[in-house]
């Protein structure tokens, strides 16, 4: 999608601090971090939200989750605990409509989230 911010990051047309890359996924630091570790994991293929990713039916959701965990391990937050969040839809606070998992960690995370 030519007008999609995260497609442009995937294409390396817009800079981002990339922390992990696989054949089908990319992980980069959130520009406005909400925790010491705040990384976004996207499929390189454009899907607007988690519902569309779930429907992709080709193991892509699996790849995103595996990359999220790999990021947590590399960031050193896997042992202490981390959170993986898909804001899905405007009512849940989704603002960029290229599906992304937020990987958050490095501080105590309260529950329930706001
Ligand atoms: P959402 O609100 O859709 O769940 O999350 C979008 C996230 O993308 C936000 O946490 C926001 O800080 C992040 N973000 C927005 N624009 C950029 C950008 O240009 N680069 C990076 N690295 N993150 C961005
Ligand atoms: Zn996109």
From TrEMBL:
A Pfam short name: HIT
Motif (Histidine triad motif): 98-102
Active site location: 100 (tele-amp-histidine intermediate)
Matching PROSITE patterns: HIT_2 (PS51084)
Residues covered by the HIT domain: 5-114
InterPro entries noted in UniProt: Histidine_triad_HIT, HIT-like, HIT-like_sf
Gene3D superfamilies the record matches: HIT-like
CDD domains membership: PKCI_related (cd01276)
GO molecular function: catalytic activity
Domain of life: Bacteria
PANTHER family, A to Z: HISTIDINE TRIAD HIT PROTEIN
Protein name stated in the entry: Histidine triad nucleotide-binding protein
